[in-house]
From TrEMBL:
<protein>
    <recommendedName>
        <fullName>pyridoxal kinase</fullName>
        <ecNumber>2.7.1.35</ecNumber>
    </recommendedName>
</protein>
<keyword id="KW-0418">Kinase</keyword>
<dbReference type="GO" id="GO:0008478">
    <property type="term" value="F:pyridoxal kinase activity"/>
</dbReference>
<dbReference type="Pfam" id="PF08543">
    <property type="entry name" value="Phos_pyr_kin"/>
</dbReference>
<keyword id="KW-0808">Transferase</keyword>
<dbReference type="InterPro" id="IPR029056">
    <property type="entry name" value="Ribokinase-like"/>
</dbReference>
<dbReference type="GO" id="GO:0005524">
    <property type="term" value="F:ATP binding"/>
</dbReference>
<keyword id="KW-0067">ATP-binding</keyword>
<dbReference type="InterPro" id="IPR013749">
    <property type="entry name" value="PM/HMP-P_kinase-1"/>
</dbReference>
<keyword id="KW-0547">Nucleotide-binding</keyword>
<dbReference type="InterPro" id="IPR004625">
    <property type="entry name" value="PyrdxlKinase"/>
</dbReference>
<dbReference type="GO" id="GO:0009443">
    <property type="term" value="P:pyridoxal 5'-phosphate salvage"/>
</dbReference>
<feature type="domain" description="Pyridoxamine kinase/Phosphomethylpyrimidine kinase">
    <location>
        <begin position="68"/>
        <end position="248"/>
    </location>
</feature>
<dbReference type="GO" id="GO:0005829">
    <property type="term" value="C:cytosol"/>
</dbReference>
Length: 273
C-alpha cells in the first residue's frame, strides 16, 4: 500500500479538510497518515469563532518521533497549515524526506482576499513551501497572491499560469482550481506551454470543502499513475457529482461539507475496474 502523509487542519464539525481527505484516500487504498496542523471545534465558515488548539509544540515532536521510528511516506498532500512557523517546519521535514509525489494546496485566501490571520510573511512562507511540490493547486485568489499579479475573478491564464510555473521546481505543475468559463467551473493548467481547461457545469450555491476534496482526489489519482489530463477531468466530474448529491439532499444546514457518497462510489467503481 502506498503511504500518504496528509497534513491539514482537523475541524471536528463541518466535514471538510482532513475529515474529507481521509475517506477519499482510504477508498483509493492509500495508507494515510492523518496529521492535523491545527485542531478546530468547527470549520471557520458559519459557526462563529471556533475553539482552536494550536499544535505548534506538538508537530515538531511528531516529526522527531517519525524520524526516530524511521517512518517515511511515498506521497504527501499538504493543505491548510496556519502559521509561518509550521509552514517552515513542514518545508524542512519534506526537504529531508524522499517523497515521490508532493501535492500542495497553498491555502491562503478566496474571493480576492487573504483569509483572516494571514499576512505577507505567510504568503512568502507558502512560496518557500511550494518549492518542494510536484503539483500545486491554488485557487484564482491564491494564484494571484503567490505571483503578486493583481487579482481578477477571470484572470488571463496565459499570464497567470506561466508566472506560477516560475515559482515551482522544473517539471512540477501548477493547476488553478476554481476557474470559471461560461457556465463551467473547473481547473486550468499548462501542457507544452498551452493553457488546458477542464470544467463541469457550475451548480447553484456555495459549498464548503470542495477545494479540499478536489485536492485529495487529484493527489490520489496522480499517485495511482493517472496523468494530469486524465486526473483533472475525473476530479471535476466527481466534485460535480458531490455537489449534485449535496443539492439533492435539500439540507437544512448548508455549513456541512459536500456529500461524499456518490464520489466514494465512483472511486470504488474505478478501483474495481
Ligand atoms: P476552497 O474555496 O475550498 O479553498 P478552492 O477555492 O480551491 O477551494 P472551490 O471553489 O471550492 O476551490 O472549487 C473546487 C472545485 O470544486 C472546482 O474546481 C469544481 O470542480 C468543484 N466545485 C466547486 N463549487 C462548485 C459548484 N457550485 N458546482 C459544481 N462544482 C463545483
Ligand atoms: Mg473557492
Amino acid at each position: 500500500m502506498t503511504k500518504m502523509l496528509v497534513a491539514e487542519d482537523l475541524s471536528a464539525v463541518g466535514g471538510i479538510s482532513l475529515s474529507a481527505a481521509l475517506p477519499v484516500l482510504t477508498a483509493m487504498r492509500y495508507q494515510v497518515a492523518a496529521l492535523p496542523t491545527s485542531l478546530l471545534s468547527t470549520h471557520t465558515s458559519g459557526y462563529g469563532r471556533p475553539a482552536i488548539q494550536d499544535l505548534s509544540t506538538w508537530l515538531p515532536a511528531v516529526f522527531d518521533h517519525w524520524m526516530a521510528a524511521k517512518l517515511d511516506f511515498d506521497q504527501a498532500l499538504i493543505g491548510y497549515v496556519g502559521s509561518v512557523e509550521l509552514v517552515d517546519l513542514l518545508h524542512k521535514y519534506l526537504m529531508a524526506q524522499q517523497v515521490a509525489l508532493t501535492v500542495v494546496d497553498p491555502v491562503l485566501g478566496d474571493l480576492g482576499e487573504l483569509y483572516s490571520g494571514f499576512d505577507g510573511d505567510y504568503v512568502m512562507a507558502m512560496r518557500r513551501l511550494i518549492q518542494t511540490a510536484d503539483v500545486i493547486l491554488p485557487n484564482v485568489t491564491e494564484a494571484s497572491l503567490l505571483t503578486g499579479l493583481p487579482y481578477a475573478a477571470d484572470p488571463d491564464l496565459a499570464v497567470l499560469l506561466p508566472a506560477l510555473q516560475k515559482l515551482v521546481k522544473p517539471g512540477a505543475h501548477a493547476i488553478i482550481t476554481d476557474v470559471t468559463r461560461d457556465d463551467l467551473i473547473g481547473c486550468a493548467w499548462l501542457a507544452d506551454g498551452q493553457v488546458q481547461y477542464s470544467g463541469q457545469p457550475r451548480l447553484p450555491g456555495h459549498y464548503n470543502g470542495t477545494g479540499d476534496t478536489l485536492a485529495a482526489v487529484i493527489a490520489g489519482l496522480l499517485g495511482q499513475g493517472y496523468s494530469l489530463a486524465q486526473a483533472v477531468p475525473l476530479a471535476n466530474q466527481w466534485l460535480n457529482a458531490a455537489v449534485a448529491e449535496t443539492l439533492a439532499e435539500n439540507r437544512d444546514d448548508e455549513r456541512q461539507g459536500v456529500a461524499l457518497g456518490n464520489l466514494l462510489r465512483a472511486i470504488l467503481a474505478l478501483q474495481a475496474s
